Amino acid sequence: MSLAGKKTLGVAMVGYAFMGAAHSQAWRTVHRAFDVPVVPEMKVLYGRTRDAAEAAAGKLGWAQAGTDWREVLGRDDVDIVDICTPGDTHAEIAIAALAAGKHVLCEKPLANTVQEAEEMVAAARAARERGVRAMVGFNYRRTPALALARDMIAAGRLGRIAHVRAQYLQDWIVDPEFPLVWRLRKESAGSGALGDIGAHIIDLTQFVTGQRLTGVSALTETFVKERPLPSAATGLSGTGSTEKGAVTVDDAALFFGRLDGGGLASFEATRFATGRKNAMRIEVNGSTGSLAFDFEFMNELHFYDGTEPAAEAGFRRILVTEPDHPYIGAWWPPGHGLGYEHTFTHEIRDFLLAVESGTDPAPSFEDGLGIQRVLAAVQDSAESRSLWVDIPLT
Amino acid sequence: MSLAGKKTLGVAMVGYAFMGAAHSQAWRTVHRAFDVPVVPEMKVLYGRTRDAAEAAAGKLGWAQAGTDWREVLGRDDVDIVDICTPGDTHAEIAIAALAAGKHVLCEKPLANTVQEAEEMVAAARAARERGVRAMVGFNYRRTPALALARDMIAAGRLGRIAHVRAQYLQDWIVDPEFPLVWRLRKESAGSGALGDIGAHIIDLTQFVTGQRLTGVSALTETFVKERPLPSAATGLSGTGSTEKGAVTVDDAALFFGRLDGGGLASFEATRFATGRKNAMRIEVNGSTGSLAFDFEFMNELHFYDGTEPAAEAGFRRILVTEPDHPYIGAWWPPGHGLGYEHTFTHEIRDFLLAVESGTDPAPSFEDGLGIQRVLAAVQDSAESRSLWVDIPLT
Amino acid sequence: MSLAGKKTLGVAMVGYAFMGAAHSQAWRTVHRAFDVPVVPEMKVLYGRTRDAAEAAAGKLGWAQAGTDWREVLGRDDVDIVDICTPGDTHAEIAIAALAAGKHVLCEKPLANTVQEAEEMVAAARAARERGVRAMVGFNYRRTPALALARDMIAAGRLGRIAHVRAQYLQDWIVDPEFPLVWRLRKESAGSGALGDIGAHIIDLTQFVTGQRLTGVSALTETFVKERPLPSAATGLSGTGSTEKGAVTVDDAALFFGRLDGGGLASFEATRFATGRKNAMRIEVNGSTGSLAFDFEFMNELHFYDGTEPAAEAGFRRILVTEPDHPYIGAWWPPGHGLGYEHTFTHEIRDFLLAVESGTDPAPSFEDGLGIQRVLAAVQDSAESRSLWVDIPLT
Amino acid sequence: MSLAGKKTLGVAMVGYAFMGAAHSQAWRTVHRAFDVPVVPEMKVLYGRTRDAAEAAAGKLGWAQAGTDWREVLGRDDVDIVDICTPGDTHAEIAIAALAAGKHVLCEKPLANTVQEAEEMVAAARAARERGVRAMVGFNYRRTPALALARDMIAAGRLGRIAHVRAQYLQDWIVDPEFPLVWRLRKESAGSGALGDIGAHIIDLTQFVTGQRLTGVSALTETFVKERPLPSAATGLSGTGSTEKGAVTVDDAALFFGRLDGGGLASFEATRFATGRKNAMRIEVNGSTGSLAFDFEFMNELHFYDGTEPAAEAGFRRILVTEPDHPYIGAWWPPGHGLGYEHTFTHEIRDFLLAVESGTDPAPSFEDGLGIQRVLAAVQDSAESRSLWVDIPLT
């Protein structure tokens, strides 16, 4: 299938660090792997400093670099704005881009506060009326194994759901000398493990089960209260790394809640689980079966079919690399696994399909707001001796 | 090493169902495998009905059968009373036996209420003054892998503990037609998943870490509110199995708490985790390492040594079958695993060693009371919209 | 079910080391766990030295000890002789015991040579005419997971078998200073890894598939050619442990062969697989499914059902602890695993059932001879530059 | 690091099917992820038919398409020829391209016969004199976990190697109705499972251990002797799929051999291992440690450190996603795994580094010839009743 003659859409990206690199790989690859109806053109990357932005643009495959993202609002050759910055800038960029008629893909969490998220939803709704699309980037939904899990639950394979057990375990700040980076400051990151990785397992729980959390009880902790300030990257006066600053976000968040289908869900998000590198795990137990997943083994989904005779039943490891599995047809033969970056390629594929077909991509900004409300309820409960906090579903 | 000339101790057992069979296997085996200083003599088994008690005594290897356990109080040939009945009878039997100068091994949970447990502790303290010993049977402590975990943590291999993640997952009552057995009635069992299996993971958390829970927040649920009454085993009036009765205990209990060393612990006990048969799991994350265990793989302990270079670090599966491992020297060569029943043989070995050496066995009735207080706090919190409940440590 | 009034059979055991301890545990337990029609009475244990034999008898639960096994031939109170000695004495003891009308359970391998095995088969056939039974102790067949594997293959769940992949990996003599024990001397052990552990995977391959090996090609190796002589346990002349002696058996044996159903089988038996403690593994691939097993995880059987839709197929871990699984009904609830020693309890249960019902137990001495012929063919091929050696099936 | 001003090298690719797609992804990505000294320019793709070649070129990112690969010999803008065709055309293309001064990357196996491979080696040697480089594409060497395994063995972590256990298990032709594609015909593929996947595990064994095979004994089998002819892709007379043709290659190959360091190695390559999708496995046992790998879990390496105390030793799962691991620094944070395609990106990165630095890339054509000789020895032995065949090392 030739790309010749296919429609193109211009793309701008704001931010170029971890998420920027991952998104760029996806923008470069999506039309090479999938038969998408439009071909993205990587027009411009925006960063704070010119040298760094230009180096990143060259390396990552963007035609130009810029330092003022507002410039994009007036560019006719840009149709899509991809926001890969820290959470405190999401609202401003997304609202302006949508107002300018750009489709927006915004990294998660949608915002740092419920109020910002509500304003973004309002902007997305107004844009939708004009055929402009907005999506929040919970990329893990596009892990083939998790997309399969959702499909199996939607098809009724698990029956009535009693339990969800979700964990996101990392260990990258166990060392108390690890510096006070932006992800450890409330003003830039909003929250700590909770918003960064807890948001993912909240989204996955709701995505995989098709249900919503109706309330939570929570406990949070900051194990290391002060950390060295990060060294100045450049400049005369040196690093300053002997000074310390207060950690203003949580290191770990534990919470449990109820699903609107009657089940219970437990959550744990932490950056202090020594030895767990990216253990985003979810297990769902239903009346007729169970599913279990761990991102450290991202090509596997474990399924227990409770309708089999007891003597032959068991958790089976489905290697999610078959042509029949979600997204896999575009890739390699069975047993030839995918990696982390593929989740972004799949996300952008789905985004492009939605944009081109004039439908709303998922997760929507409304979905992102829903998660923001769960995050806020968790923080409220944690500040109120774990007292139960109801979550409004509207 | 011959048994000839060794001192013997007479043993009586009350109850002969699941726990009775497991304990009998241990009483028959302990001196065959271990070099214990005393040899148990299985004198008498007590049950409610003569025929059943006699059949059980013959099958399980007890010299006699009886129907009135009070008879044991006056028997000089019985030194030890082993209580394997449901929780509502523990206090009466244990207190009487201790008063009569019998050493007591009592199945867990110690009692159905904090008040009963306090009375049992008082009886055990009085007995201790007279050299009479009391122990509560949290057998899982004697799983070699868990004894090893305790030793490794005590030796400082994990550093400062940030997280405990404990689960006890079963699925034997997922079917709503499963009958209303005694374990599902508050008057006999005290609580449901909470006291039956939740008690084990509370004990293990405290045993393995050497720390105590200082407070909890909890959520419980009874998914199936009514179940068929069990058929009458004998008698005129038939089975009645089409009638239903109310389930008066929890099907699942979720809670989290704080440890007195500053860490967080999360717990989940459920009988609704389809496909999980006896998944008693515990993971401990410390500043320099982690340990993970699942009873479905009882001969394995997973250890992450955070002091290794990052390029070579990883969770290692320690096959806990080496002569250097706790209890293993008595058994088979490396790689020849043990089973569930061995936990009881180890428990009774430790009990006999304590009795003979005149020291207090662990877990003591005080330990059992401590767990009872955690169970009560969990229930209090669950009844108060998950509000935090502090646990008195004395 | 009471044991009262049940018929009893007297048992004598020859040898009391590793196998003797394991068999004793089984003789003590079999009627306590299973509803066997006869109750074994542990009459007498024979060893080479009086003190050791008496200590062992006391410890292991035998009523008497003796030093001359020939004495058993005239004892009317002994019905069964259980042979747990090294392989070089099997033939003499078994033939004499069968001639004296004793049922015989003989440890594997049946003998050290094909000729001895043939003589034992002749004795067993003659005894069979008189209602006297003989069985060779390939205990691993009685692992519930492997009995289940056999049942599933016999039921056609795997279709036509293409591959068997069998390994028995240990590491207990990797250290070149490990002494020259009897298992490392040809005159006592017959062969090394080949006969000791290779025999088990040959038996399992044939047992599980129901097929026979028709020929093999082989390679053997002795990595450590000389080892320290073992210290004299007692006596004047001291230990001699600085002297070395030649290792006269293989450390490792690799071979592959053809099955009479058209499939291929590969085998590896070694004591030099560092880190593998008792990894007796077998995988069977058929046209419609596969099974995999590893004794280090003895309570699990992995099954791939190739008839499922590709999107849901996967190797499933069957936890072989359900009441419907072979042998499990006698034991504990689901998820409460068994250990190594249970394989012997199951073996003796099946032996008693056969003896009492007047049928032939399996594996028979003929089966043991068949395995001896495979072992001999392996050695022949290994000595002939791996040239293929056919195996007579009669 | 900007790409601006970097030297570029023009690349041509011959073939565009499975390997062509994987290589294209790598050519597009290598300079985006790695800081390579030269930037590849994807000039032209050659295929047999114009339409298909043009569609593939557009999809995969090549600037042009052509149908006659010989055209490349005269193109000054092409510096590298990447050969992704079936094995029967490798020799002709590679020899011509090298003669024309093009660096060559040739897919494995190097050729279909030893003689072709020898001619290719001669061409590579002549080209090397002129600074022209040749590499054979055993991509799996560039799996980070396997590169780590090689490094650990080279550093002496395993001591003296006793065993290699290598398997490559797939199941894609278990169905006898699977058609007679080119990989099942000797004239195009040279051999079956042996050359296609067996070649990989031979290379890995030698790569990881740094040792060479000195001889082998082998057994091969074709389970399904006839298969339906593939439908004609185009043409008047229809598909012909009801006709059958003879399968002229092996379905499975088993062999074992000796390494020049004194160890033993066993191999199994099959396409009939139901449920195993791409289980390329290797385990190495040395005197002080062991390593194990399975490509179905490509981000993990299992390491047993035999120098640890027995009570704490165990196979550890190293998640090979740390910045210190081979190739990983270019990618994502710990725990964010890579996929199959990354092996090619790493391969091409190493190829570009070698080309630019004027050193010889590995594996060389000489390495490819060495593997060809092992493949030939396997076939010889299999045709001679498994008789041992020595392998010349020169």
Automatic annotation (TrEMBL), chains A, B, C, D:
The protein's matches in InterPro entries, at most eight in alphabetical order, are given as:
Gfo/Idh/MocA-like_OxRdtase_N (IPR000683), Gfo/Idh/MocA_oxidrdct_glycsds (IPR050463), GFO_IDH_MocA-like_dom (IPR055170), NAD(P)-bd_dom_sf (IPR036291)
What would be one Pfam family of this protein? GFO_IDH_MocA
The superkingdom of the source organism is: Bacteria
Q: Where is the GFO/IDH/MocA-like oxidoreductase domain?
A: 148-291
Indicate the segments forming the Gfo/Idh/MocA-like oxidoreductase N-terminal domain, all copies. Answer: 10-138
**Keyword terms of this UniProt record:** Oxidoreductase
What is the name listed in the Swiss-Prot or TrEMBL entry for this protein? Gfo/Idh/MocA family oxidoreductase
Organism field: Fodinicola feengrottensis
